[in-house]
Each structure stands twice: as C-alpha cells, then as structure tokens.
Amino acid sequence: MEIFRAESLIIEEDNNVATLWLDVPGKTYNVFNRQVLADLNSAFDQVAPNSTIKLLLIRGRKKNGFVAGADLPIPQHVYCPSWGYPPCRVTREIAAPPAGG
Q1: Terminal C-alpha separation, the chain
Q2: Which of 18, 32, 58, 76 could pair with 70 in a Cys bridge, judged by C-beta atoms 3.0 to 4.6 Å apart?
Q3: Nearest partner of 47 among 12, 86, 95, judged by Cα
Q4: DSSP assignment of 23-75, as one string?
Q5: 66-92 pLDDT, tens digit each
Q6: Are 67 and 37 in contact (CB under 8 A)?
Q7: How far is Cα 98 from Cα 65, in angstroms, rounded to an integer?
C-alpha cells in the first residue's frame, strides 16, 4: 500500500516493511539533486515516527542502476566557505565534512 509520494520517490508498505522507490523523472539514471534530497528528507520525516515500520528498503526503479551520483551543482552549494545551511538534513548527513577535518 502506498503511504507517501513525492516528485522523485514513492514509499509503499507491506507487512511492516516500507520500500522507498527512487525514480527521478526526466533522467536516464537516478541522481541526487536538490529535489531528490528534499523528497528524501520529507520521506524520512514521514517514515521515522511510524512505529509499525520495522525496515525501510531503498530501491531504484531505473533499469540501469540505483544512483549515478550527485548532479554537479549540488557540491558547489554544499561545500560553501561558511558551511552555512545546506539544502536539507539529508544533504548535511551525506556531505558533512569528516570528523576532525
């Protein structure tokens, strides 16, 4: 049963297992861009408080692979000199500088 839908992903739940299907529209490969990161952020906010979900699988609907990487404009925004405010929580977790560095 579908429990969440955004522009680049859908979450379905069956028997306490949620499956997040990533499918970035208009792209041959799934890529991380601002929209995908925002959609992931919203999806995680939807799933996190749901105590019936015991497992979250993240899968891609593209036939040629799961994720190709990030669109090039994202790192320029994430790795700004002030490290002010990345586009969303997911980006902070993915692109955070290494500890001690």
Answers
A1: 44
A2: 32
A3: 12
A4: --TT-SS-EE-HHHHHHHHHHHHHHTT-TT--EEEEEE--TT-S--EE-THHH
A5: 888 777 655 554 544 444 545 455 555
A6: no
A7: 27
Domain made up of 2-95: CATH architecture: Alpha-Beta Complex (3.90)
Provide the token pair at 86. 């990345």
Name the residue among 2, 16, 6 with its Cα closest to residue 40.
6
Say if residues 92 and 101 touch (Cβ distance below 8 Å): no
Domain boundaries along the sequence of the chain: 2-95
**14 phi and psi, to 5 degrees?**
-150, 120
Q: Could you report the per-residue pLDDT of 29-45, keeping only the tens digit for each? A: 898 888 898 999 999 99
Phi-psi region of 65 (alpha: psi -120 to 50; beta: other; left: phi over 0): left
